[in-house]
Amino acid sequence: MKNAFRLFVGILLTGAMSCLAVDQLALRLQPALEAITPDGLLAHIKILASDQFEGRAPGTKGEELSVKYITDQFKQTGLKPGNPDGTYIQEVPLAGIKSEPRMSFTIGDKTTELKISR
Q1: 80-106: b (≥16 Cβ within 10 Å) or e
Q2: Inter-axis angle of helices 38-49 and 61-77, to 10 degrees?
Q3: Which of 27, 66, 69, 106 is the most buried (most CB within 10 A)?
Q4: Where are the alpha helices (DSSP H) in the chain?
Q5: What is the DSSP code string of 55-88?
């Protein structure tokens, strides 16, 4: 009986400690949760979607502008870089594939190739 009681108390204390940890995490996250608002998110989306960022495609000036904007925002909010080299940006090698799209349609036994104008 003593062992069962000890086990029960141990489980109870473990549960209480995990609740305390969750409460502390919630307190630490509260300032960030209050700082993120729908209007603030919409403002960032509008900026990144604007013509100034030229579509943000990889390897373009638009990508460079977007990366700079986002890293500047990280710095302003006090986020610490997450990469081992102390930067915000993770290098990712890109592999390019250039496809030659072909389209055709068939009616009966006749197939017609469609040409894409460039």
Answers
A1: eeeeeeeebeeeeeeeeeeeeeeeeee
A2: 160
A3: 66
A4: 2-35, 38-49, 61-77
A5: GG-TTSHHHHHHHHHHHHHHHHHTPPP-STTS-S
Helix (H) or strand (E) holding 107: strand 103-107
**Residue 43 and residue 40: Cα distance in Å, rounded?**
5
Which two three-digit tokens encode residue 12? Answer: 């109870």
Mean pLDDT, consecutive 10-residue segments, the chain of 118 residues? Answer: 63 60 77 87 94 90 95 92 92 81 88 82
Which CA distances in Å does 24 have to 12, 31, 71?
A: 19, 13, 28
Question: Under DSSP, is residue 112 helix (H, G, I), strand (E, B) or coil?
Answer: strand
What's the rounded Cα separation, in Å, for the pair 110 and 98?
29
